[in-house]
Amino acid sequence: MLRTTGRSDQGRTDCIIFSHPALPRLILLSDKSHISKLDEGVPAWNEWRRSNPDLIPDLSGTDFTGHNLAGVDFRRTNLSGAYLTVCEMDNALLDEADLSGANLTGTDLSNASARRANFRGADLSYATLTMTNLEDADLSDTRLSE
Question: Looking at the structure, do residues 20 and 85 belong to the same domain, yes or no?
């Protein structure tokens, strides 16, 4: 993985390039427009995701504290280091999302799907995980205490 900073020709300020010989190169761009799209509301975000299925949104480090994100489609989204404390995220789609180092303290993840999600080093203290699908999720070094 190579992380570079600076301005690209699209005006974005951060670029992460993942490279592996057996896989196509993935370029993740930290883009303020991703946050702006989510500011339009969960229905607008989910429609945008349906229209852009190959896009990997980068919302890393974003502070969503106290937001209602119920039913949000965060599949394959980079949420590493994000602050998702005391959020309503019931019925959220988090499959293959990167939530490494994220703070989800007190968040309601009831009935969410987080298959193959990366929660490595995340804080899930006091989170509600009733009926949450964590199949093949990476919970290494995750804080789960109450």
Answer: no
